[in-house]
Each structure stands twice: as C-alpha cells, then as structure tokens.
Amino acid sequence: MTTEFQDGWELVVGLEVHVELTTRTKMWCGCATTFGDEPNTNVCEVCTGQPGALPVVNERAIHDATLLGLALNGSVAATCWFHRKNYFYPDLAKNYQISQYDVPLIADGYLDVEVPGPDGDVETRRIRIERLHMEEDTGKSLHVGDTGRLHGADRSLIDYNRCGIPLLEIVSRPDIHDPETAQAYLRELQAIVRTVGVSDARMEEGSIRCDANVSVRRPGEELGTRTEIKNLNSVRSLGRAVRYEAKRQIAVLEDGGEIVMQTRHWDESKGVTETLRVKESVTDYRYFPDPDLVAVVSPADKVEAIRSELPELPAATRARLAEAGVAAEQASTIVASELGCWFDDAVAAGADPGAVANWLTGDIAGQLSAAGRSMHDSGLTGAHVAELIGLIEDGTLSTNLAKQVVEGMIEERGAKGPAQIAEERGLQQVSDEGELRAIVEQVVADNAGTVEDIRGGNQKAIGALVGQVMKATKGQADPRKTNELLREAIGT
Amino acid sequence: MVPEGVSLTGLSAAQLAAKLAAEEVSSREAVDAHLDRIAATDGGTPDGDVWAAPPADELGPDHVHAFLRVTAQAARDHADDIDRRRVAGEELGPLAGVPLALKDVLTMRGAPTTCGSKMLDGWIPPYDATVTELLREADIVVLGKTNMDEFAMGSSTENSAFGDTRNPWDLDRVPGGSSGGSAAAVAALQAPLSIGTDTGGSIRQPAALTGLVGAKPTYGTVSRRGLVAFASSLDQAGPFARTVEDAARLQTVIQRHDPRDSTSVTDRPPDLLEHLHDGVDGLRIGVVRELQGEGYEPGVEQTFQVALERFAALGAEIVEVSLPHAPYGLPAYYLIAPSECSSNLARFDGVRYGNRVDAPTAEEMNAATRAAGFGPEVKRRIMIGTHALSSGYYDAYYLQASKVRTLIAQDFRAAFETADVLVSPTSPSVAFGLATKTADPIAMYLNDVATVPASLAGIPALSLPAGLAEAPDAPGSALPVGLQVMAPLLRDDLMYRAAWAFEQDLDFAPLPTGPRAVGGAA
User: ipTM, 2 decimals?
Assistant: First the structure.
C-alpha cells in the first residue's frame, strides 16, 4: 500500500470528531436537549453557570458514550474523572469546560474503513482511535452585523440552549494518508453512531462535527508541523479541505517555506483554508480534577451488560448483505442510508436479496430523492418492496410498469400496496396469450420490411417490433412473452 | 447557659422552641423581638420590607453590622404562617418558628445574594440553596443575609465590600471570618441561630472569637448546592449557636443527602442528640502535639491547658497524638483553596449577571469587570491559584498540595486509632483589633493554622467557648477563647457529645461583656 499523496510527499491526517449525544436531558442538569428551540428556553441555573449551581452527571450519557466506545473497539476505563478545562469565552457559561484529561472514558479503539483500491476493488484500512472522552457542549454565539463572524461584529448574542449538551470527543491517531480515507472514516463513524442510536449525527445541525489535523512529510521522516482545520460542515468539505490544505503545505515547503502551527478556517464557497488564529504557544488550560464531581466507575459487569446491547454494526451488516448476494456498493448504500430494516423485512417476506437491494438503492431511492423525501417518511414497508418484486417475478409487472407502481406508492405515501396500485391504475402487463398474439400478428403484418430483415439474419431488428407491440399495448405487454410470440410469428 | 427569665432574644433556640411549642409565645413575637434587637444594634434604617445595611462609611462606632440585608417582612410573614399552622394543630418541626441569620453566600430566592462582593451587584438568585430549602422545610424563619469576607476569603470579615462587621464583645475588634456576620448576629443576640460556611475555619474561628459554638460538619453531609463556591472540595455549611445542643439541632436540620450535589454523601452520622448527654467518662481525648505552642497567645495556651484539666476531671483519658504533616496543612490549603477559587470565580465575567464594566471587546469587558468587581484579597487568591494550576507549576504546587492533603487525612486516621476525639485551640489568638492585620496577608492566614487540617481531611470539627482570656494588646481585657473538637469522618455525634460535657462543666455565659461590648445585652 503506497501512502504517497503527491510528488513524493506523504499526507498525515488525524481527525477530532465531536458527537452530541441524543440524551433527553443535558450532561449536568435536567434541561431538554431539543435542537432549534427559541434561544435560552432550555436553560437553568446549572447550564448558565449561576453562582452556587452544581453539576450532576447524566448517567445515560455515560452509558451511551460507553456503548459507542465499545462499538469502536475501545476499552472502558474502570475509573475515570472529569477535569476542568479553564478558558474565558462568553458562550462558555462557567468559563471552564468540564471535560476529561489524563484518563478518558474510552481508550485505544479502532475503526476499519473501506476505500476503493487502485484496481477498483475494496481495501480495508484500520484507523486507530486514541480516545473518546466525555465533555459538555458550549452555548452558541450569534454575531450581529458585518460578516457574521466575531471580528467586526456590532454586538454578540448568546444562546445557552446548547450549553451543557453531552458531547463526546473522538480523537483518531494520525493514521489517515489520503482525503478519501478521511471521508470514509467520517462516513463510517457517522453510520456507527446512528446504528448504535446515540446521536442523529447530523452534520448540518452540528450534532456531529469534525476538525482535521493535517501535515505532510517525506515518507519515513518525522511528522511535519500540523495545522488544524475547522468549519468542516460535510463529508465533502472534509475531503476538499484536506486535499486543499495538503497541496498548500506541499507548495509552501517546496518553495522553501515553513508551515506555521495554526488553526485554519475552511471557506466552502472559495474552496480554501484561511488562517483563523496562529498558535504561538500551546494554550494553558490549567486542567485540574473537577472538585464538584466524583469518579465515574465502570465495573466489568456493567461494561459487559452495555456490550450486550450492541446492535449489528455496519461492517457486519455489509458482510451479511454481501453473503446474501448484494453488490458491495449497494450494501454500503443500504447501510449508510439506514435502509437495513427495509431490506431485512423485504427479504424476510421472501424476496430475492439482490432484487431488494436493486430496488431499494436504485429506483425507490431515486424517486424518493426526486420527491424530496426519505424512506423513513415514505410510508413504504419491506413488505411493499417484497410484493413489488413478487409482481415482477410472476410477470404481472414489467420493470417499467413497476417503476410506475413505485411512483404511485410514493404518491399514496404507502397507504396502498403495489398490487392495489397496479390494479387501480391499470398497470398490469398484458400477458394473456390470445390478446397478445392478435396484436403481434397485426404488427408482423404491418412491418413486412423489418420482418424480412430479421429473416435475413438481422436479429437485432426484432427490437423495433417489440417496441411496436409495446406502443400498441401502452407498455403493458410482457416483453418476454412478446419476444417469444414475435419469433413464433416470424418463424425464426 | 443562658439565664432564665430574660427577654426572648436571650433564650437559646431550644428554650425558645419550647416556649413556641407550648404556645407561650408566638413565632411572630419572637421574630419581632429579634428584629427590634437588630434595629437597635446593627445600624442601618429599620423600615420597609427589606432593611439594607448602611453604606460602609456611614457605620457608627457602636454598630455591629452583622446583616447586609434584613428581609423583615418576609420573616414576619413566614412567622405568621407558622403561627397559623401551629394554632391549626399542624405538626411542626422541633425548631419551627425560631429565627435564624443566613450567611450571604447561600442563595435564597427573592433577595440578592452578594457574597460580600460588588461583583454580584443586582443578582437575585433564581433558586434556593438546598440548605435554604431545608431551613424552610423545618419552618425556621430566616431574618436576613449576613456579612462576610468577599467570597468567603478572609479571617476577619474586613474583606467585605460592604464594610466591616464588629465583634459584639468589643466593637473595635473583628468577629473573625469569613462568617463574621453570622457569628456576630448570634453573639449580639440578633438571632439565636445562624448558618455560616467553613472552608478552612470560617465557622470555627469566628465562633471562637465571639464566644459561640460553631461547627463544620463532615464534608459531604450538608449539600453545597446554592452555596456560592470558594473552594468546592472544602466548603461546608454549618451552624452557629450559643449552646452545643442548639448547634446539634440546627446541624440535624441541614444535613441530608442531596442528589443534586455529586459530592453529597448518602451516609449520615449517628443521631446527634441521642447520646449528646452521655458525657466523656472513659472517652479518649487526643491532644494534637502540632496544634499548640509557638504562635499561640499565652492566654489561649493557658485556657487550653485548663480545658484539658477539666476534661480529665470529667473522666476523660487525655492522650497525646501527633499529626506529623499538620505543619504543612496551611501551605497546602493556601494552594488548593486558591486553585479551586481561580476556576470557581471565573464565571464572574460580566456576561450573564452581576456587575459589568463595558468595553469594546468581550475580553476587555471581562478584564474591566473583574478589575472593578473583585477586592484585593480575592484577586490575590485568583492570581495564586492561576499560577499554581499553570502548566509547569501544577506538579510542584497543586499536585504536591493534594499529596499533603492525603497524608494529613492518613495522619488523622492514625490518630483516631488512639483517641476518640482530638482537641486543640481553635484560633491562635483572641479577637484582634480592626485593621491590625489587613496589611499582612500571611499574618491573617495564620489564623487558620489550627482549623485547616480538619478541613483538608474532611472530618467534622467544632469550636466552643473554653473561657475568657486577655488580649495581649489590651491588659485587663477578657475575650472568648475557642476550643476545637475534631472527630472521625461521620462521627459528628462524638464531637457534639464531648463538647456538650465540656460546656455543662464550664457554664460559660455567651453574653458579651466588657467596656466596648454591644449595648443593652438581653
């Protein structure tokens, strides 16, 4: 495996991913965690840092973080603590963030990601995960006036609704050497987070956020000076930003320059990273154990009980699908778009796995996407998909008709099954032999020239005749039957 | 003991509670008597629903200035409500209707909580401290909020942003601190009970200097929720009273497990009252070698020696014990407490509540607000703590101090194998003159030398009067000396039992006397 990125340079990337856990209440108080509520409505004395207020750990958050840590093959600390990370910022209510320092809740995990290999095959890469630690989110600053960023703003407003939402920071080792692997890691992490159900992991709502630490070096050399890229709002941004930053660093170094340790801001519209702040020295956060909290203790039996709650993880689902005959790419799509339960239901209802995967990831996904909807709010069930495939297999529907039936099901929001839609909309195939034979004979009679061609050996020309039959039946003729009858009538 | 037949303000809480229960007197009458006493002795203008203390520069020489704010009407209303319920036959708690003064570091809805600082100007807490809730649940009537050293940092109450509190035994002397207001209120008969908080001695030292009983319960038995934090791992609220029994009764009310405070313990000490009167016959009383001698005033030393003789005469076995690491307690404390305070006080930034000094950027506003809002001692401790936690110094300071703390706790465990309770003088001196130590922070810190070890170990400790002694700067004076009693974790009951036996034997009258004592006692 080559790790060269460009012109003999190796790219080294480590990712820091923050996941907001979807617990009902915040990390240290009973306030709701709902996204998008009116500013400062989900707040209390604890999450606004009022004098005298004390934090109490949300046990559910520890449970969820542990579950995710186990899904990422990590080991759970038998005892760990919370530390205070001290820094002044207006949206940080206490001017310290409760986080973890020397002993994180979870350490030493890894994530296997699949990326396309050079020959079009799939390669698996293991990205080590250094740690997962529990912390709390900050409030949100809204800067009014000028650019909407802090610098040059007329005034700033703060919404503390987000302050104190449980946040899990997942730090990878610098094991990533190309933008595609970085993207695959983030996508896979997102899929795992959703599968274990601890967060909705929506990048656009900030419930999963990613910072990238990027450096370049000649292979075998010491790690180069890194920069940290922020404001990566999609998997696509991550790939673009890492690629841009790597090329920028290479250009600087090849020009004889030096990389300055700094935080850079990804500008999605310009497609560039820009200096946000230069780190002249490491910020001194004066970490110390939070005296308001006690140790988090995770005895082995508790950890094993949580481990037993783990659902089938995406990699296992993909492997199972592949074994059932689903193409690798479709299996990935099914897992990534959380179509697994529809797949399972349809197969359980007797449908062929390959056909189910084809329909789910192909026409059904395409039509839903065109309608601006998802499978989750479509009303469609696995049984609908199985029924649809059954109707195709028994010749009631052609592929084309089946697509029209899908359209109908989407319009009806799943209220009616495929058979009912096909019947109501007159979409069944004409496969009645007598009826079809009459049409075929008429077509043969009307197209003597083409018929001669075919008899002369031009087998492909039969397609034109099939088309004529379809036209005459408004697409409802069974193509296989039509072909059969045409050949019989022509005598080939 | 408090003499019988005196006015309502001279009664102990237990005596007053008995009269209330017998309906010889109403809670409203008790509250009014104490409000009158406050009006007569504390300064300020006693009118309206809430009486504000006078500005610092308008304090008269004879004013105690124990209260920052007297919530007079709320107290009267609460008392009336208790009286109505008593007449209606409702079952009330043992201290129902008894008035109390609350240190202004504990939140109470509807009234400002200042922590003796300008920083919190205008802040009305949106919630009651758990201690405040428990007082209300017990139908104890809060008269108001008492003065204190700013954010509980100090040993004389001279670090208040709102002026000094004076010692009722000598109005030219300090009442100790940081809970000086709560101590002075009880000593001046403005209230039979008060609540203070103790981080390194802030209840015990003022109790000693004002002739009261003041107790720091086992860390974790009284909820810190709503106690504005100075040093979270040390802060603990506790009672002030004029008798041991009153203090035990008040501690019983406020010690309860609180699921909203993670450091609140589920265990409670054995009932504080059940064996209160069992005496000290056969009890092993350990004298801590390191907490006496050099640095203690002769009058204090002498009174302490007499106290030991009294204990022996009562049948106690006096044993000498050693806390080898106790001499490192004070430096360790003055690293740990400032470290925690530097972080705890970071939230006072002008963004959400309290004072704000406007400036062009958020950072400048933070800095200007903090520069204007905090007094010099608070700034000093924030600076010390910030330094002690900073990278490169953490191991040498904070971490090392934490290790000393562990060693001191081990010392205590070893000492309690040969002694049931430990005793020492509470404070190296009797009450000292106003403004005599303010220029020398180290001299001020030395007030805590005997109280800090128990704080670091989390064990229960109280101070009770051991007698009167002459102040070195005032020949012929007679000022209270405190005796500290320390007990193992969760054995607050033993501490009270030893203290009660001593109190009965000594028969100390907790009524300020002397040429500059607060006027018109009882």
Answer: 0.95
